[in-house]
């Protein structure tokens, strides 16, 4: 996800009683966040369904970026956001965009073989990877309690993937690789947040994705023979672009620590879509592993909140 704009309240005491206006703003932000997560879940479900109809995942990735760029350009452009393409760290912007694109490709390929609940459970390992990488890259070293939470979180991922026990398709390792790319993408987003606006970073993500995927398109393009396929290819881009826009609006109304725990509600969306669209229901091991990952992630958020409030 793109780095959202920092809310003014994020620098204050989150445990202090909120005014009625702040409570209303936070409720709206939570609703916007829920809408964004619903969009991201529909994005994955649509990509999975397209793959089941023979559409190459790379073609779907191209549609996801191209349609998103077209939609976002109506709201973020030279007239509404002068200087939006100006960046002081172009190399890092491109590197970040490549990491996001790689994560998307790996996830879409994995979705051909894995259930929606399985891929999102693995992706939930991203906060643990970020916490580990933040030490050597950002100088933000995790303390003993956070390291224990990270270890327990990875244990949950192992329960979901069950390597060596014949319980998971090898595509799970693609999903793990996607989570690693997404963690590095998150680290680079934090580095860019100090110099570039969230809108600039979002625009670069889209433009770089289109520029990098378009040369590949002639080798994977298959002309859709049904209007529904065309519609869903456009829907993939809509879900991605609109979801990120809702995310930015949510973080403009409430501080990140308030919204972060709701990220894990995406598992519910994935469970519902997996069941009603594909007839999938994860096995008990996947649910147990996902619960471990979510509990560990929430504890990390709790420790981060304590650190910020002193």
Automatic annotation (TrEMBL):
Lineage: Bacteria, Pseudomonadati, Pseudomonadota, Alphaproteobacteria, Hyphomicrobiales
Protein origin, superkingdom: Bacteria
Pfam assignment, any one: EamA
Coiled-coil intervals: none
Annotated region described as Disordered, given as residue ranges: 1-20
Name of the molecule in the record: Permease of the drug/metabolite transporter (DMT) superfamily
GO cellular component: membrane
Alphabetized UniProt keyword annotations: Membrane, Transmembrane, Transmembrane helix
């Amino acid at each position: 996800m793109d780095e959202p704009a920092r809310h003014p309240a994020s620098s204050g005491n989150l445990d202090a009683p909120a005014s009625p206006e702040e409570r209303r703003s936070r409720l709206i932000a939570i609703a916007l966040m829920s809408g964004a997560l619903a969009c991201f879940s529909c994005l994955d479900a649509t990509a999975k369904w397209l793959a089941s109809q023979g559409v190459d995942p790379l073609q779907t990735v191209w549609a996801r970026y191209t349609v998103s760029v077209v939609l976002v350009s109506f709201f973020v452009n030279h007239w509404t956001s002068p200087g939006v393409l100006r960046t002081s760290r172009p190399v890092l912007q491109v590197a970040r965009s490549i990491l996001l694109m790689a994560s998307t490709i790996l996830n879409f390929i994995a979705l051909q073989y894995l259930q929606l609940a399985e891929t999102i459970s693995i992706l939930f390992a991203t906060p643990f990877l970020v916490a580990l990488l933040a030490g050597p890259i950002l100088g933000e070293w995790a303390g003993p309690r956070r390291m224990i939470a990270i270890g327990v979180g990875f244990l949950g991922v192992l329960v979901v993937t069950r390597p060596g026990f014949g319980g998971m398709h090898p595509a799970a390792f693609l999903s793990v690789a996607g989570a690693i790319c997404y963690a590095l993408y998150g680290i680079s987003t934090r580095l860019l947040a100090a110099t570039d606006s969230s809108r600039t970073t979002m625009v670069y993500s889209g433009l770089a994705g289109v520029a990098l995927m378009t040369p590949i398109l002639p080798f994977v393009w298959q002309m859709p023979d049904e209007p529904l396929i065309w519609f869903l290819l456009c829907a993939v881009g809509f879900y991605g672009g609109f979801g990120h826009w809702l995310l930015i609006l949510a973080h403009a109304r409430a501080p990140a620590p308030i919204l972060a725990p709701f990220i894990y509600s995406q598992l519910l969306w994935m469970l519902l879509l997996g069941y009603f669209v594909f007839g999938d229901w994860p096995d008990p091991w996947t649910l147990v592993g996902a619960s471990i990952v979510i509990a560990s992630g929430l504890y990390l958020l709790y420790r981060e909140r304590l650190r910020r409030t002193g």
